[in-house]
Fold each of these.
Amino acid sequence: MSDEPLKQDAPRGALKRALDSDILHSFLRSKITVIAAVITALYFIGALFAPWIAPHDPFDLAGISILDARVPPLWMDGSDPRFLLGTDDQGRDVFSAILYGSRISLAVGFLSVILAAIVGVLLGLVAGYVGGRTDAIIMRIAEVQLTFPAILIALLIDGAARGVFGNLDREKYVFWILVFSIALSLWVQYARTVRGSTLVEKNKEYVQAARLIGIPPFLIMIRHVLPNVIGPVLVIATINLAIAIVTEATLSFLGVGVPPTQPSLGTLIRIGNDFLFSGEWWIAIFPGVALALLVLAVNLLGDWLRDALNPKLR
């Protein structure tokens, strides 16, 4: 008998199980979650394909004219058909700047969450599995870390970077400074959550069996314990993505984020804040609305994912 039909039926069976799963049913049943997912997907598509979707390149100094500065949105008097949401003080198209700014904000958010998750999960696994003095040291460091707000940590790291690199060289590394500083403030949640789950999992029979057959502790943690404690990490990562985006926007608004020549959403809001009370409200309001909508959509997805993966609520 040929194995070809079995190979063809395998993807169909996996697809059918996915379509019949409780998580998908819970997702489709919640209209708010579906709307949040669509909004989030639109942001990702807009950020990923910004060079092709944006009508103008806000980073191209040759294509920007100061004569186009402070042009109002399309539906107001004195508008220009080339600029849907108007322009800022440098003549950049606000709509295009939002697309490119979302790209930077999402990139900082994603990379900082990934870095925080890697560090936090590894430290949580080691603390929970090894225990003893190692566990005590890691948890004391985590408790000290919790006493420092994320903004303060980022400001301290930024100040140290200015002292090491100087203001000019700092702009070359400011993206990675933001990623590192935000990740440094987020790893504790992953470590504490994974440590608690690891303390439960390490006493189960499959871990004891792995020890008996001589599997090294590191491989036991990665191959056997990690897959069983990763569920809460996905929820934390989704919620922390919104926190990371807001933190980056706050730092950029305070002037320690990305430079105005390559603005994120926070930088656009800071630039527009200088003109908010002089009548050019669109320079700050539209990036602010874009940031709020993105954070709200990601938070709603995180709340749904937390409830969907909670067996007590099924």
Amino acid sequence: MNDLWIILTAALVAAACSLVGCFLVLRKMAMIGDAISHSVLPGIVIAFLISGSRGSIFMLIGAAVIGLITVFLIQLFQQSGVQSDASIGVVFTAMFSIGVVLVSLYTRQIDLDLDCVLYGEIAYVPWNIIEVGGVSIGPKAIWAVGFALLLSSVVIGLFYKQFKLCSFDPALAAAVGIPVLLFHYLLMGLVSITTVASFESVGAILVVGMLIVPAATAYLLTEKLSVMLVLSVAVGVVSSIAGYFVAYLLDASIAGCMISVAGVMFVFAFLMSPTNGLIIRKIRQKRGLSGVIPESV
């Protein structure tokens, strides 16, 4: 049963991250999830100092708030002329450093397990359960990530056309009256919620990997957004299931094996994609050249 909980949690994380990851890849903001996963440290510490509790719910709330602030600061710097990658790097390193300073100043004598909070291990998911009336209703991660997936699915489903147009042509979206900035922050809010809901239980490596790799793989396989969303989720879920069994056989890191499998799938798509595959393009070029009849001298 524990194996089933681990696989189910990984599959939910993959689906939730892949869904919003498609829009990040299209907007060339793939590393925003990594920025959020590092910058939430001050939110965790502040939540602990205010509540006096190491309960996960307080730390998750603090992390979510700081995650949204991180997104706002990144967007603010970009609008002020700072390059996208520089904005992300500056904000997440600065926020993470503030968190480190807060830890060193206020939590020296307290067992605040930040490694667990920031880089949780998916193998421990089955033991962190929720009980209602003394009855277990499953691991906390299942409910947290399931809620994030449901929220993202509903919001993207309701505003699919707006998200699509804002991702491909924000100028046209603004011209037809769509509030581009509002949908940008709405998407970043979904990314923040998904990231925060996932990384405590499954680890930052798995979350960041699932935000980027399945979406990038799907991007190589299709030129239609709706198909890209489906393929991205499928790649994430398949890599989660296959990666777990690879980890079992090798007795290795579960999250590492899942992202490694996703990476292998990306390489295969990069080489063999019908539209963008490197090998397929070379074959087409070779056939095209072989079909050209040289002019007689």
Amino acid sequence: MSKHSTTQKAAMTTESTPAPAVDPRLLVREQGLAGYLGEFRRKLRSGDLGSVPVVLGLVLIAAIFQGITGKFLTAGNISNITLYIAGPGLISVGIVFVLLLGEIDLSLGSVAGVSAAVSAVLSVQHGVNEVLAAVLAVLAALVIGALHGFFFAKIGVPAFVVTLAGLLGWSGLQGWVMGNTGTLNNPPNGFIAHLDNYFFDDVAAAYGLAAVAVAGYFVAAFLGARSRRAAGLAAKPLSEVLLRTALLAVLAFVAAYTLNQDRGLPLALVVFLGVVVVTDFVLRRTSYGRKVFAVGGGVEAARRAGINVAWVRISVFMISAGLAAVGGLFIASQSGFADKQLGSGNVLMNSIAAAVIGGTSLFGGRGKTWSALLGMLVIQSIVTGLDLQGISQSIQYMITGAVLLAAVVLDSVSRRTQKSAGRG
């Protein structure tokens, strides 16, 4: 074979061999700020909105109500908002888990109510230690969640029907547990009373929590980027990690300063944030969390991948019921008592709305527990702002309903756009 033909064949082989694919995220980071802006625009066009709408909504809500009332951004009002979001927010975190499966749990308001009733009756009427009574109430809720999950996962009853029956049944049990008493006040200065009314008044507490949050984020982001680079994957450069950490530091320390201008750091906020962080870690960093997303993305595919679908479903309903019980205890602490109406009204609807408004999809497979925090901030900010204006509760319901509808429409449009862009 001639040298010319050999060279020609080599050239043809080179031309026919495709160039290795380059991760677009690497190109974005090489282009600097312009690359990030371009990537942001691409995500918006493809429907990958993330938390952008809810963050912009929060800024807009705060600006409007501050301009109207002049009181919305005061330290006292901000502190009150952090208290009001804890109970429903904890319930909303549990709802996020259920929504990730593409299901719904309508019983969680009743579960919160019956758990608070069990705790109050045991501690007040039967002299059981308050902490033990609260633990027993949460354990009872876990059993309730397992029961819901069993009928759904093993018997095949739709989750909507199972939890609708639970909404009615556990509400009846709540009334039966309370008996003729109707209302039981929390023991003064007791465990339940402190849940929503205790503040760390030392300024070091709020600033210390802010410092821990910022340091924790930096360490997690830095180590995560290093491990991805070691595996040959796209990773955030150190400059990006530092920029994100700086932005978080500004937000965290401004929040700490604001809370310290009032009563200090609320215990309720610490618990709520702790639950959000832990559950976010579970969903994003553990095999169990990946299984939850897999089941929500496609049951049959998850089953063929060897995932125990029934167990994942049962465990998710247990988690949602357990968090509902904890949320019910915080609601009882905020009101000062447990009664037959606790958990009724708009508690369930606000908790579901918060998860959806915060960015968790109703169609399953997409969402974060941070959605519960962001969504509750939106709802409670609207309610608080309208309260400052003296707007009636009926108007508040209509506005909250409109915001929920807008969030669902945005979710639907986003999914459709992502499918059109080949990302769905």
Amino acid sequence: MAVNKIGLKDKPVIELADHLNILLANYQIHYQKVRGCHWNVKGHHFFDLHVKFEELYNNAQLTIDELAERILTLGKAPVATYAEYIKNSSIKEITTEGLSEEKMVEAILSDFKQLIELEREVIENATENAGDEGTADMIIGFLRFKEKTSWMFRAWTGKN
């Protein structure tokens, strides 16, 4: 089996890059959802949630860039169109206009749950199949952020 430029075997790494592209597509849909929540939040928690949603979409934007660059490092091209994002994402778009604060937070928690599941699959794929500790380490950082933020949002909803 051929070895790529960073010392990993080609076939498992190409499969890992495909898996990362699925994660990237999900992040793109999540990113836009959080932007919509940021723009459309109304209610008693406006100031807190408006700032928090901005923090989340800024974090997602950085994560998206890291994912795309890792996919390129592994020798593939990242998906880069909304058609590809929608096709490859298990996270679905929602309309945030008129959505209550609680429903927005629930939507973000649902996205986080799906992203966490995907990230755990990527970590397993990276370590067990591709021998790619670099990708696993990167994804573990993303995972920790979402686990902590999920706990905080669950505390906010009172559904801890």
